[in-house]
Amino acid sequence: MKVFINKNIPEAGILLLQEKGIDLTINPTENVLSRNEFIQICQQNDALLNVGANNLDEDFFEQCPNIKGIALFSVGFDSVNIPSANSRKIPVGNTPDVLNRATSDLAFLLMQSVARKSFFNHKKIIDGKWESFNALENLGQELYGKTLGIFGLGRIGFEMAKKCKAAFGMNIIYHNRSHNVSAEKELDAQFVNFETLLAQSDVLSIHANFSEENKELFNKYTFAKMKSNAIFINTARGKFHNEADLFYALTNDIIWGAGLDVTNPEPMKQDNPLISLPNCCILPHIGSATYEARNGMAVCAAQNIIALSENKKMPFCVNDEVYI
Ligand code: DGY
After folding, report:
1. Whose CA is nearest to atom 3 of ligand 1?
2. In a mutational test of the pocket of ligand 1, which residue from 239, 288, 297, 299 has the highest number of ligand atoms less than 8 Å from its CB?
3. 228-264: pLDDT as tens digits
């Protein structure tokens, strides 16, 4: 089987694939391929191990009829048009669990960074603006006993909630499609409706899979319903929030701060006004960027490809229905 890997991945995954004698074409450059280049190479392969946010839409599937399976190097699968894959019986695999710790660690880091305005204060040092001690300046807020609201309490959200409870004794509320029974039992998490999540969260952190129905769910109307001390954390997908509305909320005391690992578009432009706000901390989509998580992701993606090559069900398949 011929597999295209559009950007290099950790060796752990490559070795597994090579041991199985799978014929690999790895994009040797760090350059992002143009859409045309990408499609052309995919047309010559049986499967794609996709790294990054290529849009695998209906047009992609139409143009690449040889593709028999897709292994994503991500847990999120919003870049794939699943109905298009389903109609062609193409399995799509992702990399769940292995990045739960890394991504929730980053959400936790952003939460604290925002609470203590740490990026802004760090920048002051870089800019030569470290001034003498002032009892009334640089004040942040403490998180002890506050309420963490999780939008989408799955595996990553669960890890975030666990950390917040252990470190700060935070109360956990969450809004999901369905109840998370383990979180309710182990963390005393309370299921609430969306309006209550907005109204009661001191920290609101998104950990849901993105789907179009949630596009810009966090906007001027929803920010307006949040507490004025609230910290908004997005480590999921940039499309969950409306950026102009977030800017307005942050500069008009509607909410207190925001921590983003994801933006829309990515990369964010260097002159984006959010970057210089004292109450906003932004990172360049590095939630899963630890050696441990990335090695785990490489292994999961390789296991998905290997299963495909052996005509078996992918172990981490997001569209099981193709096997019926
Ligand atoms: C994921 O795994 O979905 C991360 O956001 C990287 O894309």
Report:
1. 76
2. 288
3. 999 999 999 999 999 999 999 999 999 999 999 999 9
In the chain, where the domains are located:
2-98+291-323, 100-282
Atom of ligand 1 nearest to the CA of 262: 5
Q: How many whole angstroms separate alpha carbon 240 and alpha carbon 122?
A: 28
Q: Which CATH superfamily is domain 2-98+291-323 in?
A: NAD(P)-binding Rossmann-like Domain (3.40.50.720)
Model pTM score: 0.97
Instruction: Report the alpha-carbon distance of residue 139 to residue 134 in Å, rounded.
Output: 10
Q: Is 74 in the pocket of ligand 1 (CB under 6 A)?
A: yes
**How much distance in Å is there from the Cα of 180 to the middle of ligand 1?**
22
Q: Please tell me what DSSP assigns to residue 210.
A: P
Q: Which residue shows structure tokens 């956990």?
A: 172
Q: Is 100-282 assigned to CATH 3.40.50.720? A: yes
